[in-house]
Design brief:
single chain; mainly alpha; elongated
């Protein structure tokens, strides 16, 4: 059996943490369940990350970076309506195929609000910086139009909420969204 390097193990922790935090949120997920999913001890987990908050933040940042990459790749070489529909199609495909990414996003927003209430502003700052990188990724292909960027991201958040609430594809609630923003196929939860 080939042993994993610390970096490979760290990546496996981020993947496992994404799945577990997506299910249980920050406060409802123990580091024990993450360690068990990865197949390591909690002490080993804490050799890779200084604590639960660091694990959650790494998973949240990975989720945001993956979303940014999805949009950047989908919009490459495109502008305006073509970019909009390509990014929307790519995103709806990702959340249909990897629902843990969507739920991790939703849990991240809840965790920011909770952290802010507890006086922890560092966490929110990191997440907001990621959101601004997301904004800056979709803004140019959408013609650098503030209204178009805001509308695109607003549709995305609506899609996130509808999927998180379990509205199936084909439900009448999707009819008001432009076709590329509609979730297609069967969503797994």
């Amino acid at each position: 059996m080939v042993r994993m390097s610390a970096e490979e193990r760290r990546e496996s922790v981020i993947r496992a943490a994404t799945i577990e935090f997506a299910r249980g949120g920050y406060h409802g997920t123990s580091t024990e369940v993450i360690a068990k999913r990865v197949g390591v001890s909690q002490p080993y987990l804490f050799r890779l990350f200084p604590g639960k908050k660091a694990i959650f933040l790494a998973a949240a940042q990975r989720c945001m970076e993956d979303t940014i990459q999805t949009f950047a790749e989908a919009a490459e070489g495109l502008e305006g309506e073509e970019a909009l529909h390509s990014m929307a199609n790519a995103y709806t495909k990702v959340i249909a195929e990897q629902p843990e990414r969507l739920m991790m996003q939703m849990q991240t927003y809840v965790a920011v609000a909770a952290a802010e209430q507890e006086g922890d502003h560092e966490f929110g700052t990191v997440v907001r910086d990621g959101w601004m990188r997301l904004w800056d990724t979709v803004h140019p292909p959408l013609g650098a139009d503030i209204d178009d960027t805001t509308t695109f991201l607003a549709y995305g958040m609506l899609v996130n909420c509808l999927v998180a609430m379990g509205f199936p594809p084909g439900h009448r609630v999707w009819e008001g969204l432009y076709p590329s923003a509609r979730v297609k196929g069967r969503l797994e939860h």
